[in-house]
Automatic annotation (TrEMBL):
Residues 17-175 form the Band domain. This is FtsH protease regulator HflK. Pfam families: Band_7, Band_7_C. PANTHER family: STOMATIN-LIKE PROTEIN 2, MITOCHONDRIAL. One of its GO terms (molecular function) is peptidase activity. SUPFAM superfamilies: Band 7/SPFH domain. It comes from the Bacteria. GO terms for cellular component: plasma membrane; side of membrane. The chain crosses the membrane at residues 6-24.
Amino acid sequence: MFAFTIFILFVLFILYKLMLIVPMREVHVIERLGKFRTVLQPGFHFLIPFFDRVAYRHDTREQVLDVPPQSCISKDNIQLEVDGLVYLKVMDGKLASYGIEDYRLAAVNLAQTTMRSEIGKLTLSQTFSERDALNEAIVREIDKASDPWGIKMLRYEIKNISPSRHVIHTLEKQMEAERRKRAEITLASAEKEAMINLSQGERQEAINISEGQKQKRINEAQGTAQEIAIVANAQAESMAMVAKALAVNGGNEAMNMQLKEQFIEQVGEILQKADISVVPTELAKMEGFFEGIQQVSNTAAGSKGVRK
């Protein structure tokens, strides 16, 4: 009974060594008597017990490896702490097994050295602004070096670029100065635009005022000309009517009568409104005559008194 049990266990062990199921996400490297035999793809396979063995198992899915932070020196001699992520995939199980001892460790170390070399070609500002180009350059260089390892470098992503505290402080001052400069430029531009708009407004206002004054003078001149024309026409018509009236029999007598009436009315108005005594010319002459006689009489009387 014990021997039968041992026999059953031995048969099961042989069957276990004979059959091999490779999962979908892996490839297995098979060695026969210590020598590479084949790379088994996912599926069911048979092996020769005690001769064939699975030497390596590789995951064929895309793998993400963390690249630890490392110190780098930029082109403008600024120290940076840079870390990233490496995305790779096993393409050849044989080369990944025998081409290098540990392709994961080798990929991380190669990414570090390549990243240090590429950052040394860029200035600090370029490392921030040209991150995509930097990632592509690192992937291209790592892919060339890792081709004999049977792996494919898919992409590289920089996670953090951390300058030293002194550099950060300097950058903050520089950014503050740049913001202040931009604010001053914006303020100056706004003031310039305001002055330009104000001067243009004043210029337009002066033009409008001058145009208005010009139009006003033109209108006044046209009004004066029309007024003069109307008055002249009226005077011409009145003179024509007067001349026509004078041509009629008795027209001169009527004109003389009207002139006398107007003269009398005007003299009456002057006598009412004047502050001094106003007399007709004839009376003024007579008053002067009598005043002259009175002065002569007084002079004569004085002469007689002196003689006595």
